[in-house]
Amino acid sequence: HGADHLSLGRELERTWAEKARAGNKPQMETDLFNWHLANLEFANADRLEVLSLGQWDQDDPYDFDGDHVWLPGGNVRLVSAMARELPIFYGHAVTHVEYPAPRSDEGPNGLAHEGVVVTCKNGREFRADAALVTVPLGVLKKGSVSFEPPLPERKSRAINALGFGVLDKVILLFPKPFWDMSVDTFGYVTRGDRDRRGRYFMFYNYAKTEEHHLSGGAVLIALVSGEAALEFERSGAANVVAETMTVLRRIYERRGVTVPDPIDSKCACWGTDEFAYGSYSNISVGATGEDYDALAEPVGDGLYFAGEATMRRHPATMHGAFLSGMREAARISERMRELNKAGRLAS
Ligand SMILES: Cc1cc2nc3c(=O)[nH]c(=O)nc-3n(C[C@H](O)[C@H](O)[C@H](O)COP(=O)(O)OP(=O)(O)OC[C@H]3O[C@@H](n4cnc5c(N)ncnc54)[C@H](O)[C@@H]3O)c2cc1C
């Protein structure tokens, strides 16, 4: 349990420094080590310094088998397919949720269920027998949605304890691919200290080919992780295209490949996005897998929680988010059946 209160990053760096002192390590090995740290910061979407040494990988035993896959046309295709029959109100940012306390007067003669009232920034109100909160953990941490009564101590503690860091992407569209089309990804090892190592350390090949229609054109995605991602957002992603191009030219021009300027570019800055305030959850120093369970617990009579940060075994993933939705759909459906049977549905 002592390891739950130690930092993964600090322990890794301390161990490496000891080995380097003892073994006269070549600089190249240290550079490679730093690249792997950047890669780990990408996988956890946070600085290794904040991650719990004992708990950061508590979900590993539950990983599904099989390769990672990229969905041609983007993940939005899954979302669109699932949302086909659903009414969705865009431009309705939720600011306040009022929910009923659990009631003891269950049974056929009990009072009607009070229901949940959800208020939006544009003033619109929604009333329902149940509400499912799926805003990202970053939004809960920020407090941009208030709850009445306030969320219980156990849930608030979990919201504070779990981490929600940043991983960003720079998307570049080129006239045509100039890179090696036989690889999915390629890395860039640089002389990076803790602050710089995550800057464009890896590129994803999203180019459209005869066989793969991953995107609409010759697209490369550069990753920015760790401290570099925070700095990237603080600077408002200034000079980002010029910097990424410097890296790409450093990699390719020494091989005699001419690297053209991109036709278009876009940056994802999740840390400053008001509907995310970060990328995905992690277990930071002092937190445990139990905090994910606390986030998943229903509150009062009618307020439910889903989303990646409610999945102890599959956090930080799309499939985790999806499965949490199924879990809560079952829970809500069961409760509504009970209320209906007792003639207590509010709506
Ligand atoms: C850069 C990056 C790379 C990733 N790579 C992978 C990967 O390779 N594989 C993988 O499985 N997962 C990956 N993930 C993680 C995955 O995207 C998330 O775990 C998943 O999308 C979380 O789903 P969710 O439903 O919990 O939250 P979200 O998808 O964030 O949905 C929350 C929704 O709430 C909305 N919202 C926020 N605030 C409000 C408000 N006040 N009122 C109303 N609506 C609000 C948001 O607009 C959003 O639509 C990645 C994430 C990032 C950022």
What does this structure look like?
With 347 residues, the chain is of the alpha+beta class. The protein has a domain at 76-163 and 280-341: 3-Layer(bba) Sandwich (FAD/NAD(P)-binding domain). Helices cover 31% and strands 17% of the residues. The protein has 9 helices and 13 strands. The protein has helices at 8-23, 27-44, 76-82, 137-142, 153-161, 226-234, 240-252, 290-296, 318-341; strands spanning 94-98, 116-120, 125-128, 131-133, 146-148, 163-164, 167-174, 185-187, 199-205, 218-225, 264-268, 281-282, 303-305. The strands form 4 sheets. The protein has a 5-stranded antiparallel beta sheet. Strands 3-2-1-5 form a 4-stranded mixed beta sheet, with no helix packed on it. Strand 2 (116-120) and strand 3 form a beta hairpin. Helix 5 (153-161) crosses helix 8. The protein starts with 7 loop residues before the first helix and ends in a 6-residue tail after the last helix.
Count of beta strands: 13
Strand order of the largest sheet: 8-9-10-7-11
Please indicate the percent range of residues in DSSP E strands (runs of 2 or more): 15-25%
C-alpha geometry: globular
User: How many DSSP H or I helices?
Assistant: 9
CATH class of the domain at 76-163 and 280-341, anyone? Answer: Alpha Beta
Major sheet: size, sense and barrel closure? 5 strands, antiparallel
Low-confidence stretches: none
Distance between the termini: 48 Å
What is the residue-averaged pLDDT?
Answer: 92
| Rg for CA atoms | 23 Å
The CATH fourth-level homologous superfamily of the domain at 76-163 and 280-341: FAD/NAD(P)-binding domain
Structural class: alpha+beta
Provide the CATH architecture of the domain at 76-163 and 280-341. Answer: 3-Layer(bba) Sandwich
Order of helices and strands: HHHEEEEHEHEEEEEHHEEHEH
Bound molecules: flavin-adenine dinucleotide
The helix fraction, in percent, is 25-40%
CATH topology of the domain at 76-163 and 280-341: FAD/NAD(P)-binding domain
Domain Amine oxidase: 28-332
GO molecular function: oxidoreductase activity
Organism: Micromonas pusilla
Pfam family, one: Amino_oxidase
